[in-house]
Specification:
The protein is of the alpha/beta class. Helices cover 35% and strands 29% of the residues. The protein has 8 helices and 11 strands. β9, α6 and β10 form a beta-alpha-beta unit. A 7-stranded parallel β-sheet has the order 5-4-1-8-9-10-11, with helices on both faces. A 4-stranded mixed β-sheet has the order 3-2-6-7.
């Protein structure tokens, strides 16, 4: 079984970003919080694997090429012939950046617990995920919990980013799912904005107390 310093699971998204001042031109790029984290860890010298589901489309091909070029193991990446790789457009309006997402029914949202690459997850020293993957579909949410269970059972530490996106799910459901996941996390990584919405607390010290009371072993509150 291969061993990895970090195994990250989540939703990669291709990006088309409008060139400022030119409504007709867009630049191609790569997004997705967990994919970005996996690449960053690999650039720092960690041995990293990524777990996701992408389409059998040109965008999926480009993601595979990206991860391989960055040294991220792709043995946990599945291809889906029926669902596309998700993406988003960034345009510029009078109020700043505007994001238009094309992720409904994406391959990543079709992740299921029964399809997880357990050999990859059990080889992790740290398993990293975020609440975005729990928000995109019920089956993806189940897959996150199953992945945490498999990685923890094999001795991995769990790193969890709340990354709250209220356009994807209502606050009450987000709070319930995120609090349940905090209890499983060794490292909880919320932003100040996320944590205020989730906890109802304002002061950083109160937020830390809330997160620790929910069961996190260690909290890195991003200010």
């Amino acid at each position: 079984m291969a061993r990895f310093d970090v195994v990250s699971l989540g939703e990669p998204l291709w990006e088309l970003s409008q060139v400022p001042g030119d409504e007709e031109r867009f630049l191609f790029g790569f997004g997705g919080d967990t994919s970005n984290a996996a690449i960053a860890a690999a650039r720092l010298g960690a041995r990293v694997a990524y777990v996701t589901r992408i389409g059998t489309d040109a965008f999926g091909d480009r993601f595979l090429a990206l991860w391989r070029a960055e040294g991220v193991d792709t043995s946990g990446v599945a291809r889906d012939a029926e669902a596309p790789t998700g993406g988003y457009l960034i345009s510029h309006g009078p109020d700043g950046h505007q994001f238009s997402y094309l992720r409904a029914g994406s391959a990543a949202s079709c992740m299921r617990a029964q399809d997880l690459p357990l050999d990859v997850l059990r080889g992790a020293r740290f398993f990293h995920c975020s609440a975005i993957s729990q928000a995109i579909s019920a089956s993806a949410c189940d897959a996150v919990f199953a992945a945490i269970e498999a990685a923890r059972a094999a001795g991995a530490k769990i790193a969890y980013d709340s990354n709250l996106r209220l356009k994807l799910w209502p606050l009450a459901r987000a709070r319930a799912v995120i609090e349940a996941t905090i209890a499983l996390a060794d490292d909880f990584l919320p932003s100040l904005e996320d944590a205020r919405a989730l906890s109802g607390c304002e002061a950083p010290e109160a937020i830390l107390d809330w997160a620790l009371d929910k069961g996190a072993k260690r909290v890195a509150l991003k200010l």
